[in-house]
């Protein structure tokens, strides 16, 4: 065995006690980020390199995941005739499939290795990208075929679970919030970039027509580059294991289900509103749905996913400093306020007030994403009896249980991306407006806020006595 001191790391005064061994296939044995000397000497640089490529691959996953929410707005212009219900199914089905895929994706990193699975999962993105490009090029494509193609976009949603599970093993407990926040935010940005780039790509130079197949084709070179980058620069950690007993332990933990419910409110809101935002703007403010810039169309819907994505790492950082529960409570309160403002501004017919209200909602959900996700390793460490669980590293067994919980909670939370469009579609079809659907969301945020206070902030509870 030889000490691994690479990646332009700076030596510290105290030599690291952790010794790493490299094996073929870019496998690393002996990883221990809780060893401060090792972390400063070489661990941080290795972790940062893996984080960077993980973010890029996850970014493309979110791009592919969100493509149908953008394309559906342009389908009538391309000659497709679809009902309101069919449109909302095309928007929501990728989230349903993606959320479901997150369950098996959670266990792929231990089975194949983080680097190896990043290559595979990135390669799978080629399928929905190419399928979309082929299907939307012909207005005679049956709805069921469009539905299958939209479902395949769920491959992009599955990437999040495996990526987050992988990255949590690279970082020490004290830095997990920021690292996981960056990883998630970089992925979440894919939704915003797709909503900005795709309308431009399919309309530029197209006059009155649109070139919908480009919505899929333009991402192929980037996906291939992500596969190459993962192969060339990422690593597999032999310690990144989520054994079956750890998974069973996670499922049996009542707090897993509570945290998953909270994550439906934060991440589910983000991905759900990101998917439905272009449709809401097109319905309520059609003049602002596609702004002309030269020969291209630009949609301001990208701003929602953008501010939500950028806010996410700060949610993790605030949780690192003040505790995730406090930040999550503030986030739910702000999300309820933002949703209430949306209800108030809709009858006024002011697009800019509507946009400002939604951006507040997106920022709050982004911060809540980071803080809620940061709570997970802390809660599981605290439940295992780890003192000062917010900053103290836990045992390998607890880390593996936590990794399983991260994937499972991310999967359950992602179902919000299906529920929100479906709830708004039901509200629109049954009442003629979206107001009732938004009122349901306010009630949900109030319940989630109360649960966070009761279980994680009350000093009379074991969790409340720690900084969760």
Task: Give a written overview of the molecule.
- α5 (126-135) packs antiparallel against α6 and α12 runs antiparallel to α13 (302-322).
- β1 and β2 form a beta hairpin.
- The strands form two sheets. A three-stranded mixed β-sheet has the order 1-2-3. A two-stranded antiparallel ribbon has the order 4-5.
- Residues 1-13 have low confidence and may be disordered.
- It has helices at residues 36-74, 84-106, 108-112, 114-124, 126-135, 143-152, 154-170, 176-203, 214-217, 220-233, 244-252, 254-284, 302-322, 324-345, 351-383, 396-414, 416-431, 435-456, and strands spanning 21-23, 27-29, 236-237, 291-293, 296-298.
- Helix content is 71%, strand content 3%.
- The protein has a single domain (28-456), classed as Growth Hormone, Chain: A, CATH 1.20.1250.20.
- It is mainly α and 468 residues long.
| Whole-number count of domains | 1
Mean pLDDT: 84
Number of helices: 18
Distance between the termini: 38 Å
Number of DSSP-assigned strands: 5
Q: Summary?
A:
With 468 residues, the chain is mainly alpha-helical.
Topology:
Blueprint lengths: L20 E3 L3 E3 L6 H39 L9 H23 L1 H5 L1 H11 L1 H10 L7 H10 L1 H17 L5 H28 L10 H4 L2 H14 L2 E2 L6 H9 L1 H31 L6 E3 L2 E3 L3 H21 L1 H22 L5 H33 L12 H19 L1 H16 L3 H22 L12
Parallel strand pairs: 2-3
Antiparallel strand pairs: 1-2, 4-5
Helix pairs in contact: 1-2, 1-4, 1-7, 1-8, 1-10, 1-12, 2-6, 2-7, 2-12, 2-16, 2-17, 4-7, 4-10, 5-6, 7-8, 7-16, 8-12, 8-13, 8-15, 11-16, 12-13, 12-15, 12-16, 12-17, 12-18, 13-14, 13-15, 14-15, 14-18, 15-16, 17-18
